[in-house]
Amino acid sequence: ITARIKRTLPVRGPQAPTLSELMRWYCLNTNTHGCRRIVVSRGRLRRFIWILLTLSAVGLILWQCAELLLNYYSASVSVTVQFQKLPFPAVTICNINPYKYSSMKDYLSELDKETKKALETFYGFSEGKSKVRRSVDERNSTGSEFFKQIPLLKFEDFSRTVIDLHSGQKRKIEGSVFHKDSSIVNSGDSNDIIGFQLCDANNSSDCALYTFSSGVNAIQEWYKLHYMNIMAQIPLETKEKASYSADDLILTCFFDGLSCDKRHFTRFHHPLHGNCYTFNSGENGTILSTSTGGSEYGLQVVLYIDEADYNPFLVTSTGAKIIVHDQNEYPFIEDIGTEIETAAATSIGMHFTRSRKLSKPYSDCTETGADIPVENLYNKSYSLQICLHSCFQKAMVDSCGCAQYAQPLPPGAEYCNYKKNPNWMYCYYRLHEKFVKEQLGCQQICKDACSFKEWALTTSIAQWPSTVSEDWMLRVLSWDKGQKLNKKLNKTDLANLMVFYKDLNERFISENPANTLVILLSNFGGQLGLWMSCSVVCVIEIVEVFLIDSLSIVMRRQWQKAKKWWNDRKRERLGKAPQAGDLERQGHDNPVCIDEDLPTFNTALRLPLPQDSPLPRTPPPNYSTLRLETAFTEQLPDTLEAGQH
């Protein structure tokens, strides 16, 4: 009986043999209303309407859930303001002139001669009649070979006809033209352009022309190019001695109303700014703090600038540069430094802000920079600027074979110079051009830091010292300077600097997830219940039917086909004809769908009858069993009397 039931009854539910039967069973038994109405509705129009409504509801659910997922990775910004005792930041101070000109004059003598010659040739500038003018032959014999290879050029009428500074002759040049500025400030004819030509040392036909519409910019850029080459060959100890000491730079110092001195400053050597000094660097493990706002409770220093010992071609302004930064950050003076004017009191008020962004998947920032494939060359905490400079320096070493002077040295590399790397200038300019155009890949690799500190600065300037106090203040400051100076100080050699908190309000800006996982799941449940009256159980049911059961049916059919093909192939080899019992089986006759449950009474009644067997009938009752029989052999006397009456 069990075998006949399994072989004959149609199969429904998860073990249905076809996908259409599985889908019909699902629509009749699912808890979602729309799917059931598609099957039970009568008439094509009504069924079409229910199909359209159900598909629309599914589309709306998918759309709303996609919006929820996108909003899940969004963040809200919160700002918290606290009033408390604040740590004082590190303040780095540099003289705009990196080295004393008197100490570096011997190293720069040839370069200065070439620069003066350019001024005389192009602009008729002369330092005075007392100096004897050299002949052309003498001028050509002096100077290094590199000045002959890369001289300053004067372009006439935007053409490729130039006047060579070194030879004084006109010639035609070739190469791509790069305009380094858009300024039209000029000395002399407005059509004259100053520049220089850089060529590949390995291919003299591959050249680039760098032009400047301002002669000042052209001469300064050309001077700095050769200046970096010369400085790269000077030992670090020599450069530190030629720069300014703490005693030279700092005259007076006060912090939080108390006196301070050079012991509170930490020296570090910057390639472009010489010796710089950082107040409150935290190297000794102690970070100063302040509990009162205002100019009287910050840092107050008087700086000695010594304008008379400035390099006339390297810098054209007088004063100092400062930068306010965290103790773990590198001070990029050349990028974001603030210039301090001489003969003036500069007040810098600060507002402190701490910011923190969420990392992936909310934003593309990095926590520590460990996931950035760029080596940190600055030995400080990660920042976007450190990554960009380190990336460029690495590309410089890989492409040019040496390191650029303005940035730290990678391990095993050395700074570029003419003698060892005659092609480095051309390589550097080409590489820098790619870097600016974001073709080097550094801007794509480097990311912002997720957490950082920022001090918003407000600068105000006043004349200092005043006219009435100038005399006595300069005398006292000269006396404080002691025997190191043999002259009276001038106010143009001094700068007064004050750095302080305007208030003690610490602003903390943070990003928080706009949605949590609980809110996301609640929103999903609301959308499913609103559009399809569906719950988590319905979702599990959908996954079971449309993924597990559907896949099982497909695999079962493939298995049957493969088995049938294998059996047919075996019969062909043996030469046997196919038998009726070997035909493809359906329903419960499928061996895959073996179920060991016993048949019930209802399933037994549904069995079909054999064709040759008569219809079974219910047997007639045995009427003899309906006859009444008494249990007594004789009738009782009292029943007889009742019968007689």
What is the 3D form? elongated
Helix content: 25-40%
What's the alpha carbon Rg, rounded to whole Å? Answer: 47 Å
What is the CATH architecture descriptor of the largest domain? Sandwich
Describe the structure.
- With 645 residues, this protein is an alpha+beta fold.
- The chain has four domains: 1-73 and 516-551, no CATH class; 78-98 and 244-358 and 453-513, Acid-sensing ion channels like domains (Acid-sensing ion channels like fold, Sandwich); 101-125 and 144-233, no CATH class; 364-449, Orthogonal Bundle (Helix Hairpins).
- It is 36% helix and 20% strand.
- The protein contains 20 helices and 21 strands.
- The strands form four sheets. Strands 1, 10, 11, 15, 18, 19, 20 and 21 form an eight-stranded mixed β-sheet that branches.
- A hairpin with a 2-residue loop joins strand 10 (250-255) and strand 11.
- Helix 2 (19-29) crosses helix 3 and helix 3 runs antiparallel to helix 4.
- The radius of gyration is 47 Å and the shape is elongated.
- The chain starts with a helix and ends with a helix.
- Residues 129-143, 182-190 and 582-598 have low confidence and may be disordered.
- InterPro entries: ENaC (IPR001873), ENaC_chordates (IPR004724), ENaC_CS (IPR020903).
- One of its GO terms (molecular function) is ligand-gated sodium channel activity.
